[in-house]
Amino acid sequence: MNVLIIEPSKTYSLLLEELLRGYSVTPLLVSTTQDALIELKNDTFDFICIAMQLNNMTGLELSTKIKSDDNNKNPLTVILSSETDKDKFKVIQKDEANYICQKMDIDSLKSLFSSLTQNEIIKCERSGHVLYVEDHLSVANMTMEILKQMGLLVSHYIDADTALTAFETTDFDLVLLDIILPGSKDGIEVIKAIRARVDEKSLIPILALSGKLNATQRIDTLKKGANDFITKPVIQAELAARVNNLVLTHHLYLQVKQQQHALEQVAMTDHLTGLYNRHFLMPFVEKALTVAKRQNHNVSLIMIDLDNFKPINDRLGHKTGDEVLIAVADILQASTRVEDIAVRLGGDEFLMILPYCNLIQAKEKAEKVRKKIEQINIKDALVSASFGVSSSQDNCFEFNELFVSADKTVYLAKKFGRNRVED
Questions:
Q1: Of 29, 31, 313, 338, whose CA is between 20 and 30 Å from 202?
Q2: pTM value?
């Protein structure tokens, strides 16, 4: 909000500045009519405080001049007078000024400044959903109006238990809560419950409110996990600014997480086929074998090596070779369950990891995949693959042993004529 103060007295100007700072407004101070007109030429203002007595005209005359100039977009003007006779104020017309106040009536000035600044709500830079916990309905209604003006969706609850139930089932971007709440749980308990979670929801920003806590208690609230704290009664502009900062920070965090996930996917996947690569293989298979050993179930491996792939590249070109690799990868991907993965080891070699799958089931899976691969029709390429299958059902839970076993059986499949499955 842009505010201009035109006041010859430096002391009184600083007093007005201090009052406005209480409403999160930093005004521009000038002392003469000439300086005021220069600033008005260079900028627009939402409201202007004008001393009645100026160097070369009255405050009313300057106010009339300002309001009659279309370039000034008709700002609200407040005349500050030393006159104590309030009846004299009534003769002021709206085209002269919007308000007139006695300079020494500080309470009236505060009330007026509060009224003039209350609609200056910062629009939130991101859309978001706020979980708001407040048992005083009059306070809650005022705060919700501010949040809605910011463009935020608000879910309001009056106690900790219903708020935590809602938190469990709904995604929020901010928790705004009073520390003093009715019932067996207060705001501190809500904060502790959220921070004790082991999922992403534990990181949601929390803005605490209270008018009854001392400095030590406020610090303790921050130590318990609140990101920020506002003392009641809240200054609307301050609340809006703090909410905006926390929601924006949360969205930026989520954005970074998404980017990090995307980078991890790039690092763990083969750029040509989209299958996982060796970087993803080892952590996955080690975990799968550990779980299989603990739960006493099987994990099977299917190794796939394309037959005569080099002649395809040499005769039809690498572009066709890439198309063949992509087609094979699509078949493998379509043949996996949720718990399975397909990996491109490199070149024309692939691997499937099948948890909860014994040797017979793995051989059946391999045979189905083999038949689909030999049906690939890309130009004149004759596509087939040799398959080697191994399983942990013989109480072997070491990946290297299973991998070597599958590799040996691929060699047997090649030796016995290619385009076949061996175990």
A1: 338
A2: 0.50
